[in-house]
Structure formats: structure tokens, C-alpha cells
Amino acid sequence: MKSVVIGASAGLGRALAEELAQRGDQLFLVSSNLDDLAPIAADLTLRYGVSVTVEAADITTLDPEAFRDKVHAALGPIDNLLLIAGISLLDKDKGPMPPADLDRLIAVNFTAPLRIANVFLPDLTQSPAGNFIGAGSVAAVRGRRNNMVYAAAKRGFECYADSVRHYLAGQNGAKVQFYRLGYLKTRMTAGQKLPFPALDPSEAAKSMVANMGKDLGSVYLPRWWIGIMSLIQALPWALFKKLDI
Amino acid sequence: MTSRTASLDRHLSESCRIEKPDRYQELDHLPDGPIAARGAGLSYVAASFESHATSVCLGAFDRILAFDPTVRSITVEAGISLGKLHRFLAPLGLCLPVQPGYPALTVGGCVAADVHGKNHGREGTFGRHVTGLKLLHPDHGMVALAPCDDLFTLTVGGLGLTGIIVTATLSLIPLAGTAMIMVHSAVATIEDGAVALAQLADTSDMAYGWFDFSTPNHQDGAGFITSARWITDQTARTDDLKAPSLDPAQALPLPAFNRLTMPVINHLYRWSNLRQTKVRTPLQAVLWPALGRENYFKFYGPDGFIESQILMQRDKFAEYIKAWRLCQIKHGVPVMLTTLKAFTGGKQSLLRYDGAGLSFTIDVANTLSSLAFLAELDGLNVEFGAVSSVMKDSRLSMATVRAQYGDYDTFRERLRTYDPSRRFVTALSRRLDL
Ligand SMILES: Cc1cc2nc3c(=O)[nH]c(=O)nc-3n(C[C@H](O)[C@H](O)[C@H](O)COP(=O)(O)OP(=O)(O)OC[C@H]3O[C@@H](n4cnc5c(N)ncnc54)[C@H](O)[C@@H]3O)c2cc1C
Ligand SMILES: NC(=O)c1ccc[n+]([C@@H]2O[C@H](COP(=O)([O-])OP(=O)(O)OC[C@H]3O[C@@H](n4cnc5c(N)ncnc54)[C@H](OP(=O)(O)O)[C@@H]3O)[C@@H](O)[C@H]2O)c1
């Protein structure tokens, strides 16, 4: 299979690239720094004998059509699109924030994944065994005073993934798996005191790759977050507004 | 992130900052102030952290960058574990010439400690097989080093004090077999063991001795010698490498090794090894003898243990062991583990644990009587011209190390000349005033 991983240099994206290489996928990996992508490409090629092409680009500024053409030149039409890149600005994203930061949160977590997905929809329509995979967040399930913009962008992305699922189902195309991710042990959570256990990105990647081919729509990962988030959603407003979560 | 960090022997535990960068741009912006380079953090001594320093852990930098089977050379990022490398190399019929005994150990840690493996006579220490390094220092940037460079010599066995090793190019050798036939033969005394090891040094693929000094009386160290030879009877299996679970901070609430249990355990261990004198041992058990036996370290309890490892001239050993035994009897210290290995052909320099002779290792519980015993042994070791491994023994003082290592001052000066601000600091370097 031919897979594109957006945000493949670290954390969950890197772990997914490893899992996909292990099962023999041809890969096209994207993140902003070639210094990080080149070692991953060398490593995966040597260990798994797969072809790995890399593109160092800021996804907020890349030209989607030109990017799709590069991917096609390297792999031809793709089967799997994994939109994993994301950023959070935990310290700033609580109340008013500098407009540039707000724009960036929306661009990385919402606009860029949609712009990239948009150009690959024709490929995914043609690949019934393919997959559209998005990285969302439990943060987006109920708006809170922390992660205000991040959560909004992820919720928007989730809504788009629902639409893609509906669209592809009508075309007998690729399957959609959108993950409402709980905490992961990555740089994004490094140094934070977390109220719940964090999942190792390689464990998350294993589950996600095992789920490929399934028409899942939006799911929690790990699954036990469903309990916590159902509780949070069920909290009456009078109580919820008092919680600093 | 600040967390409590312990050496494997639990002799020292300090609260310190640990950074785990996973992108190259983070290495371009190393923390201000003192830094400690860190691999898997599994050293017996506190060699990769210090309370005022930020430990920079290279764990995410664990990729294979280049591999040339024709010249048997591999370039890796220094955070790669020996286990990951083994999983890649073994199916290709290759291996690292020197492998210390645990798969989670990193290449960076093995270079910085210039570790030894299974057959010192044949393969020497880890550093002998390093053909290139990339070293990062906040004041000097990233530099490529070859064995002819002074800084290379200072970095191999340099205890992580010259900077962060980011990549290493290593020579490989063909995997000599997929299993070993191990032959255990009983010896009545450790002196007999030393003689037997001398005879085996050139003829066997691996040899070591195990001795029982768990009862501090007039024990002679009855034990056994293991000599091993490679065989090939299947393809090298790499798939059943268990995920290592060695965490220095984990210990039983009370020590399971004590005066009563140690002799029983030692007796049973000796008996079980001599019950079946010829054993086929699979590759992974040969390479990683501690894998699956992590409880050994936990069983010393919260206060941990101390490993003393000394290298001494072969011809002085018989006389030394007499004095050593008297010292043990005087202090009444049971020794949980006693092993002997022959080192041949190496040359001692700087602070490396290398040279020719016998490598004599003991593990004792960290108690007041053990500390007094080991303190007296320090003097004996100096008297007999032995060197103590600074990477194993958490209590060695600067004075002892200086007295044992003729190059102590040279190492210290060369470090300062290269790095006047001495940015890389660890609890070990602080203790040894490096
Ligand atoms: C079960 C077990 C078995 C062992 N068997 C043997 C054996 O058979 N032979 C032997 O000689 N030793 C042996 N050791 C000791 C071990 O090989 C060394 O202590 C080794 O240095 C530990 O590697 P590490 O990755 O845990 O490094 P750490 O403990 O993290 O660091 C060790 C030293 O290396 C430096 N360092 C680590 N990474 C880098 C880097 N990237 N750049 C610069 N400096 C760095 C640190 O600053 C520190 O000084 C064993 C240890 C264990 C736990
Ligand atoms: N970590 C968590 O606890 C957690 C929880 C819920 C949801 N999530 C979501 O899970 C996904 C993965 O998170 P993670 O923790 O693995 O993050 P991470 O470790 O920070 O990795 C993020 C990846 O995205 C890339 N990326 C970010 N911005 C980019 C840009 N503008 N252009 C190109 N690449 C960019 C990064 O590459 P560069 O280094 O080159 O920028 C990196 O490869 C994200 O969408 C995140 O929002 C994470």
C-alpha cells in the first residue's frame, strides 16, 4: 500500500511511519524539518526495505496541488492519507491570545489538513481498501477555557472527517478513522502533570494500523476515554463551569 | 521535567531535570547551564545525571543512518539500543564485536564508558570498533571525529564529559554462531579458577569464572569456570527479545539478599550450573545474560548494592586474593556475586577500564560494613596496582582514582583545555572532581 503521513518526524506520526513500514507500505513522509525526516527515511528503508520519500515543508504554507503532484510522481495514486500533524499552545490558549498564534493553531490543526485532504480525495475515492486517518483530540469533545482554539480547530477537523466518511461511503472509497486521542507520551505533553495516564505513541500507532480498513468514523484512543468524556459531557453546566479543567 | 533519578545501584538518587528531545532543532538549542549526556540511564553509577545539570536523553535519536555490508560498517544515532541494532544485524549474520550484557544499553553509553563485552582478548573494548563520531557541544557545535583526533580519544571512555555523541560509525563482525555450548567445570578455589581462565583465554570463545564468597569466613571461593564455544544450529532468532524492564528506582521494600539468603542462593546457583555441565545456550541469553533477571537488582532493596570491579595483573592475583579474603573476614561482609574474567591485550589509558590481567567483580549489599570493607580494599587495590572501574563503583573517591589511574591528571587537563567552562557535568564527574 502507498501511504502519506503528514507530521511524521516525531511522536505519533513517527510511530505510525514505523508501523506502516514494518508491514511493507511505500511511504511519503512530511514534516517541517529535513534533519528529522532524513534519519527516519534511512532507518525505515534499511530495516524494512521499503521506499520512503520525504518532503520537508510547513504544511500551513505548502501548495496542495504541487504537493499532490510530488506524491504522485513518487508513488502514484495513494491508498492511505494520515493527517497527524498538530500543535497546541497550552500556555497561551486560554482566553485572548496573540492573533498570530490563533491563526497558526487553526492553520496547523484545521486548515492545512483540510487543504491536503481535499487534493487527495480523488485518490481515496478510487481505493476501497484505503484509509483516511485523522488525529483529533479528547480536548475537542466539550469546549473548555483551556485549549480554546486548539479544541475548536480539532472539532472542525473532526466534522470534516465525518463529511469525508459520508462522501467516501457514497463512492465505495477509502474508510475513515478519526481518533479522539487521549494523552500521548510525546513532546506535546512533556513535563506536564497529567490527570490520566498517557499512551505510548507506538502503542497508539499499533492500534491505529490494526484498525485500518475499518469504517470506524470517530473513536476514542485509548477507548477508556469514552467513559471520562461521557461523564464530562454529562456534567450539568452549573457544575461544569466551576471546574478548571 | 524534574524527576527523582537513581543510579542502577541506588547508591545515589537526586532530583534533576531530564530533557528528552526528539527533534534535531532541539539539539541545536541545548539547555543553558550544566548538561549531562544520557542514554538509557542504566549505569551502575550516577554517570548521566546531576542535581544542577539538565540531563539530555538521546533515546529518541535511535535510527540507523547508513549500513555497508561489504565493509561491515554501520552508522547509527547514539541513542540506539544494542537490542534494536541486534534485531537488524543478526538476521544478516552480523553483530557488534563488543556487547555488554543488556539490550537496552545505548551505543552512546557504550562509547562514553568504553564498555567491555564477552571476549576482551579477541575484541578489546567497544571503542576499538568505533570508526567515527559526531559530537555536539554547545560551545563548539557539531564536529565529526575520526580515531586519529585527540577529541575522539578523549570522548571514547570519556564518561560523556566532552559533549553529546549524536552519531557513531561502528565496525561489525560476522556473527560467530547462533548459540553457544557452555561447559561448566567445578573449581575448588578462586586461585584455581584464575589459573583455568588463563589457559582458556586463547582457546575458548568466551570464558568466565563464578565463585562463592557469600559466607564471610574462611571460604576459598569454590565455584565454576564456564568456557563457551559458538555453534550454528539455527538462524539467529531476534523476535523473542522481551521488552526490557530495568528501572533503577524499582526495588523491593526490604532486601531479599541478606546473610541468611545469600549463601543459600549462591549454593543453589552453583549446584544448578554444575548439575548439567554442558548446556546449549541461545544467542540472546549469551548476549544479554541479565535479560529476564532484572529482579536481581531489585532484590537488594531500597539501599541497593555496590559493584566493585577491578583489573589487576595476573601474576599478583593469588597474593591479592589472600589479602582480600582476610579483609572480607575482618569486616564480615557476605558477597552476593563474585566473577572473574581474563582481559588480554588491552592497554590502560585515560580513565578507561582496559588493560591486561584479571577483571575481578564483586557485588555487595550497600551496608555500613560493606562500605568499610570496600574502603579498606581501595587501599589494597592501590597497593597491588589494580584499577577500579569508575563506571561500576559508586563510592570511589577522587583520591583513589587518582592513585590508581596514572592518566587521571592528563584526562582532567585535556577536558579543561577542550572545554574551559566544563559544560558537561554528572554526579560521577563531580565526585571524581573531573
Ligand atoms: C544489566 C547490565 C549489564 C551490563 N553489562 C556490562 C558489561 O558486560 N560490560 C560493561 O563494560 N558494562 C556493562 N554494563 C554497564 C553499561 O554498559 C554502561 O554503564 C553503559 O554506559 C550504560 O549505557 P546507557 O545507555 O545506560 O548509558 P547511561 O547510563 O545513560 O550513560 C552512561 C555514560 O555514558 C554517557 N552517555 C550516554 N549517552 C551518551 C551520548 N549520546 N553522548 C555522550 N555521552 C553519553 C553518560 O554521560 C554517562 O557518562 C552493564 C549494565 C547493565 C545495566
Ligand atoms: N500528545 C498528546 O497528548 C495528544 C493528545 C491529543 C491529540 N494529539 C494530537 O495527536 C497528533 C500527534 O501529536 P504528537 O503528540 O505526536 O505531536 P508531536 O510529537 O509534537 O509531533 C507533531 C508532528 O507534526 C509535525 N508538524 C507540526 N506542525 C507542523 C507544520 N506546521 N508543518 C509540518 N509538520 C508539522 C511535527 O513536525 P515538526 O517537528 O517538523 O514540526 C511532528 O512531526 C496531533 O495532531 C495532536 O494534536 C496529541
Number of continuous helical runs of chain B: 14
Q: Could you give the order of the helices and strands of chain A?
A: EHEHEHEHEHEHEHH
Q: According to CATH, what is the class of the domain at 179-404 in chain B? A: Alpha Beta
Write down the oligomeric state: heterodimer
What CATH calls the topology of chain A is Rossmann fold
Corresponding CATH superfamily of chain A: NAD(P)-binding Rossmann-like Domain
How would you write the strand order of the largest sheet of chain B? 15-12-14-13-17-18-16-19
Assigned CATH architecture of the domain at 179-404 in chain B: 2-Layer Sandwich
Major sheet of chain B: size, sense and barrel closure? 8 strands, antiparallel
The largest β sheet of chain A comes out as:
7 strands, parallel
Distance separating the two termini of chain A: 41 Å
Placed side by side, the strands forming the largest sheet of chain A appear as 3-2-1-4-5-6-7
**Cα-atom radius of gyration of chain B:** 21 Å
Outline of this structure?
Chain A has 245 residues and is α/β, with parallel strands linked by helices.
Descriptive terms for the model:
heterodimer, A: 245 residues, Rossmann fold, seven-stranded parallel beta sheet, 8 helices, 16% strand, B: 434 residues, alpha+beta, eight-stranded antiparallel beta sheet, five-stranded antiparallel beta sheet, 14 helices, binds flavin-adenine dinucleotide
Walk me through this protein's architecture.
The complex is a heterodimer of chains A (245) and B (434). Chain A has 245 residues and is of the alpha/beta class. Chain A has one domain: Rossmann fold. Chain A is built from eight helices and seven strands. Chain A has a seven-stranded parallel beta sheet with strand order 3-2-1-4-5-6-7, sandwiched between helices. In chain A, helix 1 (11-22) runs parallel beside helix 2 (34-48), helix 1 (11-22) crosses helix 6 (201-210) and helix 4 (99-125) runs parallel beside helix 5 (148-171). The radius of gyration of chain A is 18 Å and the shape is globular. Helix content of chain B is 27%, strand content 25%. In chain B, strand 5 (64-68) and strand 6 (73-77) form a beta hairpin. In chain B, helix 10 (317-331) runs antiparallel to helix 11. The longest helix of chain B has 16 residues, at 368-383. At the A-B interface, helix 2 of A face strand 5 of B. NADP nicotinamide-adenine-dinucleotide phosphate binds next to helix 1 and strand 5 of chain A.
